[in-house]
Write a structure and sequence with these properties.
alpha+beta, 6-stranded mixed β-sheet, 5-stranded antiparallel β-sheet, 11 helices, 37% helix, elongated
């Protein structure tokens, strides 16, 4: 607990000094100055004694159990006065240094049993574990001469995950049938499966083998059977966190873009009734979670990836895929997030995939930097800009050559800008 003088007290003290100076020239002022200072000191002492103690104040901070990186997270702080006194002052909440936030200060004037709230938005800039410190509260005494400072509330440790807000938006739009607003065509396809679903009228493009002849005879028109696409299929999210993921796109590491997109993809997989698993590797396998169904599995994967960081090492694709083959024997859909930016890098990746190319269904996902196209299209006015454009053109040529190599072996290949990556992944998964 600390206390500070207010501007009112400082002004009164300066007034007392002025009276003291006047007392040196005006006879009889000494007694008035002594009375003035005595009353001022008495008011400070009485005011300090009247301030509500910290034990009579309760502070709570409410927020989501986990926060989403680079997204708006609402924080609510509530101060409650349990004393019989009126309390007034101001409070300031402390969020981690790595957060951007709105205004975190507010004033209050509370009677007995009343509460005041402070609301603001926080935008974490990095994944991992962060700590919210206690909230600073300054109470003003009844005379407005001093402020008493308390730190209320416990420190809150919070986990910052990839963008969970995007998952909430996905669910909301899915319920309203508006997934096209975020570039996703639809989340449920009908096809040739093993489970009968429904009957419908024949369409010109339908396979004759799907015609239900008994229903056709009863209705007097061609009727076809529909089957649900097979569910409970294993899907592996494979993330390469080698040196390629250290690169940035739009000021954010490519690994962060990958994790945001992978989170939405995992959610779509879980909603479709398939199993989802995880493997993370760089020069060795760092995380392995075999595929399972259910929200508990998604939560387990999130805990494993929320604090991942790219490593400045060369990725060993061969060791990673050999380890996967040894641990998982069934056929699966493998979604590989990696960064290969030249034919020289694409060659070893494809060579590592080749022994298992026909065993599993693969598709590779990469993050395209939109700044590259902007640099190529930007007008040139200086020699430095000319060299930057030349470098961008050379780099894009290397990337395009790597894309062609990958597409020759793995037709399912996603190379999208950050804003389009999640939708492209979900659409490719559905297909």
């Amino acid at each position: 607990m600390r206390f500070f003088p207010t501007r009112r007290l400082l002004g009164l003290v300066l007034g007392g000094l002025a009276l003291t100076v006047m007392g040196a020239f005006v006879p009889g002022m000494e007694a008035f100055v002594l009375v003035y200072n005595f009353i001022l000191i008495l008011l400070v002492i009485v005011g300090r004694a009247a301030v509500c103690p910290a034990k009579d104040l309760a502070l709570t901070r409410q927020m989501d159990a986990v926060l989403s990186v680079r997204a708006e997270n609402r924080i609510e702080v509530t101060l409650t006065n349990h004393s019989r006194k009126r309390v007034r002052g101001r409070m300031r909440d402390e969020c981690p240094d790595t957060f951007r936030s709105g205004r975190r200060e507010g004033r209050f004037n509370l009677g007995a049993g009343q509460s005041a709230g402070l609301h603001y938005s926080a935008y974490p800039q990095a994944r991992g574990t962060e700590v919210f410190l206690g909230t600073w509260v300054r109470l003003t005494d009844p005379f407005g001469l001093t402020e008493t400072e308390y730190v209320l509330g416990a420190d809150d440790e919070i986990q910052v995950y990839p963008n969970l807000k995007a998952v909430q938006e996905f669910d909301l739009l899915n319920q309203r049938g508006r997934l096209a607003m975020i570039g996703i065509r639809r989340t449920r396809y009908r096809g040739i499966g093993t489970e009968f679903e429904s009957l419908r009228s024949y369409q010109p493009d339908d396979d004759f083998r799907l015609i239900d002849w008994k229903s056709t005879a009863r209705r007097g028109e061609l009727v076809v059977k529909e089957y649900e696409v097979e569910k409970n299929q294993p899907v592996f999210i494979v993330i390469d966190i080698g040196r390629g993921m250290l690169a940035e796109a739009e000021g954010v590491s490519k690994l962060d873009h990958v994790l945001d997109a992978a989170l939405l993809l995992m959610h779509a997989v879980e909603r479709a009734g398939d199993q989802v698993g995880l493997m993370v590797y760089a020069d060795r396998v760092l995380q392995y979670i075999p595929p399972k169904r259910g929200s508990a599995q998604i939560a387990s994967i999130l805990r494993a990836i929320h604090d991942l960081a790219a490593m400045p090492v060369e990725s060993n694709h061969r060791v990673a895929f050999h380890t996967l083959a040894a641990r998982w024997k069934r056929r699966a859909l493998l979604v590989l997030f990696t960064e290969v930016e030249s034919p020289e890098e694409a060659g070893p990746l494809l060579a590592a995939i080749e022994p298992q190319r026909h065993r599993h269904l693969w598709f590779v996902a990469r993050v395209k930097d939109p700044g590259l196209a902007e640099q190529i299209q930007r007008s040139i006015t200086t020699s430095d800009e000319y060299y930057r454009r030349a470098a961008a053109v050379w780099y894009e040529g290397k990337r395009d050559a790597a894309v062609r190599m990958i597409n020759q072996r793995l037709p399912s290949h996603v190379d999208a800008e950050p804003k389009d990556l999640a939708a492209a992944l979900v659409n490719t998964y559905i297909d």
